[in-house]
């Protein structure tokens, strides 16, 4: 199963590796190997780095800090100092190494390097004064955050193919089969 990259920001996509946070929490990074695979699918690294249980624990802590901070920014709450510290600490580490040679672009590094890039993307997002574009998916069980870049700023779902279609089908059933 592939990961979903629909949030419009790498940090929000990383925070989205937990689904249904309010009820039946779905962990999409159950192992260090899944974390390593995410770094490749996210386009941060060309090959999966070695990942240890400690890397997974650090990644999950950063992921929760990102989700909490983005939620606070979305709702206008003050940003939590401990979560900001975790985010800034991760961002201070070196990002993946990018190299251009005659055969093309290569991206290499460790899980820590990849998480630095995730943290930097999150800082760029949360440092933007226009956090009004941050949304949470309106699907009943989805808790994915995303940037509403739609023309009329009316995007309701993280992904139309998944959550949008389900919501529309449920509304149709309710209207036609009460």
UniProtKB/TrEMBL annotation:
SUPFAM superfamilies: Jann2411-like. It holds the Pfam family zf-CGNR. Gene3D superfamilies: Jann2411-like domain (1.10.3300.10). Residues 133-176 form the Zinc finger CGNR domain. InterPro entries: ABATE (IPR010852), ABATE_dom_sf (IPR023286), Znf_CGNR (IPR021005). This is Zinc finger CGNR domain-containing protein. It comes from Actinomadura rayongensis.
């Amino acid at each position: 199963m592939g990961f979903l990259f629909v949030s419009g920001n790498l940090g929000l996509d990383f925070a989205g590796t937990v689904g249904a946070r309010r009820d039946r929490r779905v962990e999409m990074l159950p192992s260090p190997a899944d974390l390593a695979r995410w770094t490749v699918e996210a386009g941060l690294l060309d090959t999966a780095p070695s990942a240890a249980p400690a890397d997974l624990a650090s990644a999950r802590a950063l992921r929760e800090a990102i989700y909490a901070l983005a939620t606070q920014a979305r709702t206008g709450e003050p940003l939590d100092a401990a979560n900001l510290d975790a985010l800034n600490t991760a961002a201070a580490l070196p990002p993946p190494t990018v190299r251009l040679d005659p055969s093309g672009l290569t991206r290499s590094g460790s899980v820590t390097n990849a998480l630095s890039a995730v943290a930097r993307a999150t800082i760029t997002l949360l440092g933007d004064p226009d956090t009004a574009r941050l949304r949470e998916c309106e699907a009943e069980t989805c808790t994915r955050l995303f940037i509403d870049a739609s023309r009329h700023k009316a995007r309701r779902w993280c992904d139309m193919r998944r959550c949008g279609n389900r919501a529309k089908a449920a509304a149709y059933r309710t209207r036609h089969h009460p």
